Amino acid sequence: MLPEPGAGFAAALARAAELDIAALLQKERLWPDEFLALLSPAALPHLEAMATKAHALTVRNFGKTLQLYSPLYLSSFCSNECVYCGFRASHKERRKTLSLAEVESNAQALAATGIRHILLLTGEAPKRTPLSYLIDCVRIIRRHFSSVGIEIHPLQEAEYVALKKAGVDSLTIYQETYNREVYRQVHLKGPKTDYDYRLNTPARAARAGFRSVNIGALYGLADPLFDAYCAGVHAMALQDEFPATEISLSLPRLNPAQVSVPPENRLSDARFVQFMLAYRLFLPRLGLTLSTRESAALRDNLMPLGITRISAGSITRIGGYDGRESASGQFEISDERSVAQMDAAIRARGYEPVYKDWQPL
Ligand code: SF4
Known about the structure:
Layout: H1 7-17, H2 21-24, H3 32-39, H4 47-62, E1 65-75, H5 100-111, E2 117-122, H6 131-141, E3 147-151, H7 157-166, E4 170-172, H8 180-186, H9 195-199, H10 201-207, E5 212-216, H11 224-241, E6 246-250, H12 269-282, E7 287-290, H13 296-302, E8 309-311, H14 339-348, E9 352-354
Parallel strand pairs: 1-2, 1-8, 1-9, 2-3, 3-4, 4-5, 5-6, 6-7, 7-8
The chain binds iron/sulfur cluster (SF4).
């Protein structure tokens, strides 16, 4: 299903780029080669028409709403060696895992902002954040939030079932890059070196019964067009196999000011917008998440074009919401607006901020 990079993919891209983009924009349903055409540079002159259709499809499927969520980082310990990340095992820095009392105080402080959807994150160090710790955290968190997501080390299906029972309803897991060779080069050590185990993680979570699964690539590691295409096809396959699961996609980008990114791997703002639009046209019911890695101006401009979920008031340090000392974060955020400020920005665009659209029985 997923292509390999190289001559075969280049030939498929060349064929796709010859398709009539204007004619594709009249179609109700697109095939993967037509999605590839919309991702290709040949579609750049059609951005305005793509944006018009993306807006209409989003309003038809999701209304004029944007769901708000905030991340809570539980731990910065990690046993992997991802060359692009400040949490990598060899990086000498002060690490921290929140105590359960700190989880409670951070949950209370975050809930006081009005946020009801939370994403719990850790580095990938199962010995520091074992399943029992995660379940204890979730039991505290669920008292304050209606939806609890996790972005942690990949688990077995039975472990996801246990987390679901504790109160988790969604999973975020990024493949980082779908280029196996680059994946091998940037993941030097630790369990994350297993490409296939990671690739099959979203399916394990869907099988465990999570209502929502969010995937994506980390742009800047490999050819962005290849990763965007593979992530889209991966999302399509998950939608087909798990029709009861809400599949979403994010487009996190490495910031060249923080991490060295080869020029050919950089995803410009224009191509970033193009990819977002192409996803919406290819998979009209796909959730699209935008994090605070992106600037306030770009996030505001993207609101009407297909985004369905947006973070607010984010702190990427460990804890940090309760005003106590916290260890340093995984990456710098670009949009530092509070929940109240994001609420106002969303309403100013004519959209309704949604704090809660899910309550477990
Ligand atoms: S990207 Fe994730 S797994 Fe890799 S070093 Fe950072 S925290 Fe660990």
